[in-house]
Design brief:
mainly beta
Length: 71
């Protein structure tokens, strides 16, 4: 995902699946930014704000561990 406007929030969402690939419900997802100098993210809502130019990875984590990241 490209965020091209400074200070413009965008909300990320995540879909969780069980080991058989079936959707799950009630799973808590925690969000984090691997470069907060470029983008910050609300850990519970997934609302991300681009604060400077550069590259950043946003990570979604559940009780099962981190998921794929989006750059």
């Amino acid at each position: 995902t490209v965020i091209d406007t400074l200070n413009q929030p965008r909300t990320f969402t995540a879909t969780t699946e069980d080991s058989l690939g079936q959707p799950t419900t009630g799973t808590t997802v925690t969000w984090s930014s691997l470069n907060t100098a470029v983008a910050t993210i609300n850990s519970t809502t997934g609302s991300v704000t681009h604060v400077d130019t550069g590259r950043v990875f946003i990570v979604a984590t559940t009780c099962a561990g981190p998921a794929d990241t989006t750059e």
